[in-house]
Amino acid sequence: MLEKDILPLFDLTNNKLARESLLNLLSEPLISQQSIIERQNLLLELKTLTPIFKGYNYPPYPFYECCNFLEQTKYKTSFSEKSLFQFKLWKRSNREIYNPLYSGISNIIVFFFPLYDKYYARISGEQYPSFKKTIHIIKNFLERFDLAENNYAIRSGTFTDKKILRILQVVDTIKTEKTFAHFLDNFILFETYISIACAIEKNKFTFPEFSENIFSVDEVYHPAVRNCVSNSLSTNKNVILITGSNMSGKSTFLRSVWLCVYLAHVGLAVPALGFTLQFFDKIFISIDHPDDIDNGLSHFMTEIKALKMVVEAAATGRCFAVFDELFKGTNMEDALWVSNKTINGLKKFSNSYFFISTHLHALDEDIDRNTVDDFFLESIVVENTPKFTYQLKRGWSNVKIGKILFEQEGLIKLLE
After folding, report:
1. What is the pLDDT of residues 51-92, one digit of tens each?
2. 261 and 361 both lie in a single domain
3. 119 and 247 belong to one structural domain
């Protein structure tokens, strides 16, 4: 789900290094509520930069060319001590070395000038304390190349030997001091966070709040689903059952809630108007378990193992878990028995939350509404045709549309 559902929401990066950095950030939920709040504050600070960095983009290939040039080991020829006269003499007799050097420094200037002029020159580290050091490192590195003056010189054909030698001496110093790697680390870090901040602003996501024993989400939706219907839910119980007919939107709703919980724990904003939750030590999602052929495990057995992992986590800390169509991999009788055992057993882990969708209508008669919350995704049948509102409502759904869909596809006539 990470690369398919989450990464595209925040990926406004321009190169593979920043994309990998973003993916690593998204892959690691933070270890405390305090660290989450710190990242939220950092992103709120950077959100004020989004009017400047809106539309920040560049083709990746010239970027890689600049990186390759600056990452090369020092050339045999050193320009640090060369006079202009010595440089001119060297240039005449070393064209095969000079030409790629000229191409390399020209690429640096032509590539970085518009980025510096349009974006980085307009910001100051003093304005953004969380990124003060990073911004200074980026700007100081780029300013060593006198980008505006040399870009004009290249464009106007006045890039003289004196200017060229000066840039080659700067490159020599960078290679000797090995400062490019430090610049690149900070450049990629800044691009990663700017990508997130701009995406949050673009998508109008909201930063969640943390509070003990509260789980409330307002107008949550799944941003990857076109025209997704938003829903709200608030509960003071730790086991929440979700019912609804086939195609009513149960899986989408569960993914939406899980997505918000996960993003909250990475310190990011969420696709909802508001979200309040407690801090969880572990976050699980169990949707579409396939058979594990390599280990000889059936669908049902993979469900059992996933549940065991969640229960063990809940026994030692706070966890949030989503189970979609729990125990659909076994027969109805067994599924009903183990579902009852599971629901009643999970209630005792009061510091954890468990969202479970189910297709077992008989559970309606067994659950204790005093300790378990139940909601359903609405669907109605009008003139033997199912209609889906995708609206979440409190209560239990016993609407069945399997036979209707079977008949609508003409399978009864085909099979008779």
Report:
1. 999 889 999 999 999 999 998 866 677 888 899 999 999 999
2. yes
3. no
CA gap 19, 161 in Å, rounded: 38
Helix (H, G, I), strand (E, B) or coil at 370: coil
The reply to whether 161 and 288 lie within a common domain is: no
DSSP 131: G
226 and 182 part of one domain: no
Structure tokens at 131: 């990124």
pLDDT, tens digit, 9 for 90 and up, residues 375-390: 999 988 887 788 889 9
* pTM recorded for the entire structure: 0.91
Note whether 105 and 245 are same-domain residues.
Answer: no
Q: Which of 203, 237, 258 is the last residue of a domain?
A: 203
Residues 6+ apart with CB under 8 A from 154: 106, 109, 110
Q: Considering only CA atoms, which of 29, 37, 34 is closest in space to residue 319?
A: 29
138: its two tokens? 């980026």
Say whether both 145 and 244 belong to one domain. Answer: no
Say if residue 272 is in the same domain as residue 165: no
Q: 338: domain range?
A: 209-415
- Domain boundary (203, 232, 262) is at 203
SS3 breakdown of the chain: % helix, strand, coil, rounded to 5?
55, 15, 30
Q: How far from each other are the two terminal CA atoms of the chain, in whole angstroms?
A: 42
The Cβ of residue 122 has, within 10 Å, a number of other Cβ atoms equal to 11
Instruction: Assess contact for 119 and 102: CB atoms under 8 A.
Output: no
Among residues 163, 249, 260, the alpha carbon closest in space to that of 203 is found at 260
Residue 188: closest CA among 58, 12, 17, 7:
17
